[in-house]
Specification:
The chain has helices at 2-29, 43-52, 59-71, 86-121, 126-140, 143-157, 171-201, 204-211, 216-228, 230-245, 247-254, 259-268, 272-300. The protein has 307 residues and is mainly alpha-helical. The protein has a domain at 91-256: MetI-like (MetI-like fold). Helix 5 (126-140) crosses helix 7. The radius of gyration is 24 Å and the shape is flat. The mean pLDDT is 84.
Length: 307
């Protein structure tokens, strides 16, 4: 397994290099610059600023300089947040994204898995039709619609919860963001597990287990559930990163100071280093999440052998 992990990490290096190169090229190809929004500057001052941030160099030289900084773990200074490095901004926002995203994914598993199992066990019944109909609704309605509706209901109308703000991570401030972010994943997990469990329950070895006199509960929990989890494990890799990248809308709606807001502000203000840093971070997280999902896949199904 260690050999497989090391090989996957080596394969990730060219992937991240492609991400860095494409992001750098696309950002510098976009019209405008990081200081174009400022009031007109004297040529001498503008030349001094460009020299300080190495913007007066050719693009290939800027690329090689930035690549060298990334190899040393330095994403450079932010153009928008003066006297602040991109590493500092990421360190401030990432814990917030991890908290909201982690709780949202945990809630999605705790709610979506029982819903999917019950729908599979009560196939074509009332519970199956209602729960899967709600799941389809949860998949179809985007987060930027459900989040304001939750604020309108629980914060404005009922006044049970605050409408936004981080609030130092107080649980009352986390309820609505976590709920809004988890709803699509609850729906996806429920539908995936239902479909997978129905297919597994029709397998010959399940009929053999029933013929031996095992109870339905034992058959489902001991023999059917583990193989039914395999498609869900594959889904959780990208989903784990999706709760982070999808939190951009959540942060904007609820006023959370996470990386997503830094990313959006950096894109609007042509803050090259900030956008690059967040892009590289998300790319690395995707590679890591897929690796963890593959390892979990092999642990859940002993028949899977890592190459």
């Amino acid at each position: 397994m260690l050999h497989y992990i090391a090989r996957r990490i080596l394969y990730a290096i060219p992937t991240l290099l492609v991400i860095i190169t494409l992001a750098f090229a696309l950002l510098h190809a976009a019209p405008g610059g990081p200081f174009d929004a400022d009031k007109a500057l004297l040529p001498e001052i503008r030349a001094s600023i460009d020299a300080a941030y190495h913007l007066d160099e050719s693009l290939p030289r800027q690329y090689l300089r930035y690549l060298g900084s990334v190899l040393h773990g330095d994403f450079g200074p932010s153009f928008q947040y003066r006297d602040t490095s991109v590493n500092t901004l990421i360190a401030q926002g990432l814990p917030i994204d991890l908290t909201v995203g982690g709780l949202a994914l945990l809630l999605a598993l705790l709610v979506g898995m029982p819903l999917g199992m019950l729908a599979a066990l009560k196939r074509d019944g009332l519970w199956d039709r209602v729960s899967m109909g709600l799941a389809m609704l949860g998949i179809s309605v985007p987060v930027y619609v459900t989040a304001p509706l939750l604020v309108l209901l629980f914060a404005v109308t009922l006044r049970w919860l605050p409408a936004g703000d981080w609030g130092e991570g107080a649980w009352r401030n986390l309820v609505l963001p976590v709920l809004a972010l988890s709803l699509p994943y609850i729906a996806c997990i429920a539908r995936i597990l239902r479909t997978s469990l129905i297919e597994v329950l029709q397998a010959p070895y399940i009929r053999t287990a029933r013929a031996k006199g095992l109870s339905w509960r034992v058959v489902v929990l001991r023999h059917a559930l583990k193989p039914a989890l395999l498609p869900l494990v594959s889904f959780l890799g990208p989903a784990a990163v999706g709760v982070l990248t999808g939190s951009i809308v959540i942060e904007t709606t609820f006023g959370l100071p996470g990386i997503g807001r830094f990313f959006v502000d950096g894109a609007f203000n042509r803050d090259y280093t900030l956008v690059m840093g967040v892009t590289i971070l998300y790319g690395g997280l995707i590679v890591l999440a897929n690796l963890v999902a593959d390892l979990c896949y092999a642990l859940v199904d002993p028949r899977v052998r890592l190459p």
